Amino acid sequence: MKRLICVLILVVLTQAYWIAFLICDPIIEEIIIEKEVIVEVNNAESVVYNITPAEREMLARLVYLEANTESLECQKAIVSVIINRWQSGKWGETLEDVVYYPNQFSPARLIDKTTPTNTNYQAVDYVLKNGTTVEKFVLYFRAEYHFDWEGYEPYCKIDNTCFGYFLKDKK
């Protein structure tokens, strides 16, 4: 009966692994370790960008909000723009700073109410392991059409999302 309760707790609280671990016996720890190995985000030798599980979750949720109906390729490009912004330092020092930077990712306010799909996690994990899929100077994306800002250059369009940059950022 105790194992059944522990398994149910794990299923209900999939995003709160530590709670299940605190309540249950070591069987849960084995399940958690197995899940981390499948994700392989915490293995620093096999990743380009090493982030926390909470940052991974935040990125997957933002990808869901920004491009859930787009292809995996497009979702990877969106993750890449977010990573590029983080690496540039222009929107803050942390991924959380970048995601919640004022007037940037408007759906970010809904992150806590969002459940990402496997495809969203695949997009995040791919970029973390392999690096960005767009050039490091590509810092913007928009649905449907490119921005008409002075100095803005289109980079590409994937599905219904346009990616671009400013000439000053292409160094």
Strand order of the largest sheet: 1-3-2
Which structural class do the helices and strands define? Answer: mainly alpha
How would a textbook summarize the main sheet? 3 strands, antiparallel
Rounded to the nearest angstrom, the radius of gyration is 18 Å
Strand content: 5-15%
Element-by-element helix/strand order: HHHHHHHEEE
Low-confidence stretches: 1-44
Mean pLDDT: 79
Q: Judging from the principal axes of the Cα atoms, what is the shape?
A: globular
Could you estimate the helical fraction of the residues in percent? 40-55%
Query: How many DSSP-defined strands?
Result: 3
Separation of the first and last Cα atoms: 62 Å
Give the number of helices: 7
Description of the structure:
With about 170 residues, this protein is mostly helical. It is built from 7 helices and 3 strands. A 3-stranded antiparallel β-sheet has the order 1-3-2. The relative contact order is 0.13.
Task: Show the helix and strand layout.
Elements: H1 2-12, H2 17-23, H3 26-39, H4 53-67, H5 72-88, H6 95-99, H7 118-130, E1 140-143, E2 152-158, E3 161-166
Antiparallel strand pairs: 1-3, 2-3
Helix pairs in contact: 4-5, 4-7, 5-7
